[in-house]
Design brief:
The chain is mostly helical and about 325 residues long. It contains 13 helices and 5 strands. It folds into 2 domains: about 220 residues, Rossmann fold (3-Layer(aba) Sandwich); about 80 residues, Tyrosyl-Transfer RNA Synthetase (Orthogonal Bundle), CATH 1.10.240.10. Strands 1-2-3 form a 3-stranded parallel sheet. A two-stranded parallel ribbon has the order 4-5. Bound molecules: tryptophan (TRP).
Length: about 325
């Protein structure tokens, strides 16, 4: 039976944090070990350029994110792991799809609409600061997905609309030029924890409340100590269900350890002690990967080699796909 193709992209802006790990990276690495799937994971560096025009940051973030996935044990023999910009067929397919994508569809994209709304609120021209990359973002994303005939696309809720747009564009292309693309489905895992950050809001780079994934032990301890708690004293019972410390604990602990910590909260564990235990738990899960991460960061050539191998695997799919699409639209040799 044909394997289910699972594909997802990671935009290369910023440094991965515990929320990314729990919400996206860890489940993706687990899914990649399942033999019934064929997984495609890639660094979406073309997408990064839309939001980030600092070349050093795009470059550094690509290095860090690639090192993170490899250090955490992504099995590159079993998945196709590549950098978007190493696949020249992707921007070419993007153009073919752009010519099938309705402008009105792009007008409705949330990210673009939010930028327009915020301009209006500020009394600015509605196009202020909006580049064509932001406007066409969903078409590039459709090319990423359709190129590999992905069946399932694991994403956060904010990306569901983009997958629907990819389906819409695929259906139009298929209708006009014949069946070339599989219609992809978004997969939003409701069970995966959305981690809280230091201040109790969702952990997010834009709130500045993150715990970076591969901090050294000292720094990790320091960050965990900064997690906001209330003023209850040792011995006073604490409510696990409103506590960020407990919430992060749960994302790293076994069911048994979670039950034990729940009891410890009821018994009035001191905040300092709970945080100390949380540090030990997180550090135990990430400690070895952190060493591999440091080694990889010091050897970018190793990472580059993996990415080039991944690109070769990816292009075995993308070259024939693009060739078929070019022919379908009438771009082919004259004789
Ligand atoms: N836009 C996605 C995000 O910001 C990243 C992404 C780019 C992606 N291309 C993709 C995700 C294709 C899934 C499939 O999270």
């Amino acid at each position: 039976m044909a394997k289910t193709r699972v594909l997802t992209g990671i935009t290369t802006t910023g440094t991965p944090h515990l929320g990314n790990y729990v919400g996206a990276i860890r489940p993706a690495i687990e899914a990649s070990r399942q033999q019934e799937n064929l997984s495609f994971y890639f660094l979406a560096d073309y997408h990064a350029l839309i939001k980030c025009q600092d070349p050093e940051q795009v470059h550094q973030s690509t290095l860090e994110i690639a090192a993170t996935w490899l250090a955490l044990g992504l099995d590159t023999d079993n998945v196709v792991f590549y950098r978007q910009s190493d696949i020249p067929e992707i921007p070419e397919l993007t153009w073919l799809l752009t010519c099938q994508a309705a402008k009105g569809l792009m007008n409705r994209a949330h990210a673009y609409k939010a930028a327009v709304d915020s301009n209006r609120e500020d009394g600015q021209d509605s196009d202020f600061g909006i580049n064509m990359g932001l406007y066409s973002y969903p078409i590039l994303m459709a090319a990423d997905i359709l190129m590999f005939n992905a069946n399932k696309v694991p994403v956060g809720k904010d990306q569901i609309q983009h997958i629907e747009m990819a389906r819409d564009i695929a259906a139009r292309f298929n209708h006009h030029y014949g069946e070339h693309f599989v219609l992809p489905e978004a997969v939003v895992d409701e069970h995966v924890a959305v981690l809280q950050g230091l201040d109790g809001r969702k952990m997010s780079k834009s709130y500045g409340n993150t715990i970076p994934l591969f901090l050294g032990e000292k720094q990790l301890k320091k960050h965990i100590n900064k997690i906001k708690t209330n003023l209850l004293e040792p011995g006073e019972p604490k409510d696990p269900d409103t506590s960020t410390v407990f919430q992060i604990w749960q994302a790293f602990a076994s069911a048994e350890q979670t039950a034990e910590m729940r009891q410890a909260f009821a018994d009035g564990i001191a905040w300092g002690e709970a945080k100390k235990q949380l540090f030990e738990l997180v550090n135990a899960e990430l400690g070895e990967a952190r060493e591999r991460y440091e080694t990889l960061l010091a050897n970018p050539a190793l990472i580059e080699e993996k990415l080039q191998q991944g690109a070769a695997k990816a292009r075995a799919y993308s070259q024939p796909m693009l060739e078929a699409c070019r022919r379908a639209v009438g771009i082919r040799p004259l004789v």
